[in-house]
Amino acid sequence: MGGFFLTTLLTSFVFDNLDADIKRLVPTAENPNSTLIHITAGMLIPLEHGITLDDLQCSDELWKKSKLNPYAIPDDLPPNPDVYKLMRIHEERERHPSGLLRRTRFNAWVILYTLVHHGPGYFRKFRRELGKPEVIEQIPLVKTRQIPV
């Protein structure tokens, strides 16, 4: 199963270094006092959501535009994020019957959610009426497979 994912080149490799302090009841001759064990764990994660090899041909471009790149040319670096541009993502074209903007409706939902789930007990009775927040652009849910190595 893992071989298929390796041959498609559409697999992410994940590694993590772990340090575990294992106390021994009886010290060994090789390590009379050492209780620290170093382990590297890894897994393969097949890339989903219709990702293709062409989608992955961006490493050079990302590094060229990274502020972490010590050799980056200043003109290649993108400008700092503009919060006002972020607020215009998914601009509304039609007026909502409530008169509230989408982000204001979401903020109101978060406040109601907090009251219903974490506020005084009185508000618990409104759980079923709360519903879910408004969906704008939903990414399809795909179960991620993981292959330990």
UniProtKB/TrEMBL annotation:
Signal peptide span: 1-20
UniProt keyword annotation of Signal present: yes
Keywords: Signal
Domain of life of the native organism: Eukaryota
Protein name: Uncharacterized protein
Lineage of the species this protein comes from: Eukaryota, Fungi, Dikarya, Basidiomycota, Agaricomycotina
